[in-house]
Amino acid sequence: MTTRIVLADDQPLLLSALQTIIDAQEDFCVVATCSDGAQAVATLHSDPTIDIVIMDIRMPVMDGIEALTQIRQVAPEARVIMLTTFNVGDYVDRALFAGAHGFLLKDAEPDELIRAIRTVARGESILSAGVTGHVLDMWRSQLNGLSPAIPAEQKQGLSLLTPREREVFQLVAQGMNNSEIASALVVSETTIKSHVSSLLAKLHCRDRVGLVVLAGRM
Q1: What number of other Cβ atoms are within 10 A of residue 103's Cβ?
Q2: Which of 140, 175, 194 is the last residue of a domain?
Q3: Residue 85 structural domain
Q4: Per the count of CB atoms within 10 A, which of 6, 69, 184, 202 is most buried?
Q5: Cα 195 to Cα 174: distance, rounded to the nearest angstrom
């Protein structure tokens, strides 16, 4: 089964490079490239069966945040990976709440890009290690050193975690994917998937991004 992908970025060279890397995979196909968020929304509006959108956060005409919001309306099944840099201000924060399924740094290595697409295509979420650190720093900065109020159900969930689940939680918060966590803990990837599913249920998080945000509030 081919994963159909739309790319959106206002830098032609980056678009070309991304398309070359992605189209080299037999099961991936870039079906459209867009230079701004409005084009991306129009593309998804005309074909809401697109699987994945990889989109820059900052673009002319319509930025990635607004485009993400509209894409969620016209193509709710499409999963969106945001491309970002370290200097993104509150863009990442806004994208989290808008429903982004993943974040990648623009200078990510090709194999990291491909892993991220495969992870998101499986229904999971992904944060590159660099973005994870930025997200945690951002939340701590916004909290001004104060301990945030964690919802009661999440507090209860934290108390129910097994020692292994706590280990997995910490590694997810560092931006590691299932394969990397499995290698670090010397267990199977299937076992890690089971632990992550348990974490999401116990901690009342929608996805891995929610786990990272919760970790940043602790």
Answers
A1: 29
A2: 140
A3: 3-140
A4: 6
A5: 16
Give me the residues of the chain with pLDDT under 50, please.
146
In this structure, which amino acid lies at residue 10? D
Q: Enter the tokens of residue 79.
A: 């999963």
pLDDT at 133 (0 to 100):
64
Whether 169 and 92 map to the same domain: the answer is no
Q: Which amino acid is at 26?
A: E
User: Is 126 in the same domain as 91?
Assistant: yes
Is there a contact between 28 and 54 (Cβ–Cβ < 8 Å)? Answer: no
> Do 132 and 212 touch, CB atoms closer than 8 A?
yes
43 half-sphere exposure, CB direction, 13 A CA radius: 25
pLDDT at 135: 64
Res 145: pLDDT: 52
The answer to whether 71 and 15 have CB atoms below 8 angstroms apart is no
Q: Which of 174, 172, 175, 156 is nearest to 164 (CA)?
A: 172
Q: Which two three-digit tokens encode residue 63?
A: 């930025």
- CB atoms inside a 10 Å sphere around CB 116: 24
Both tokens of 208, joined, read: 């891995």
Gap between the Cα atoms of 144 and 126, Å rounded: 27
The reported pTM is 0.69
Name the domain boundary from 124, 140, 156: 140
Position 139 scores a pLDDT of 58
Q: Output the CA angle 138-140-143, nearest 5 degrees.
A: 110
CA atoms of 176 and 182, how far apart (whole Å):
10
153 and 97 together in one domain: no
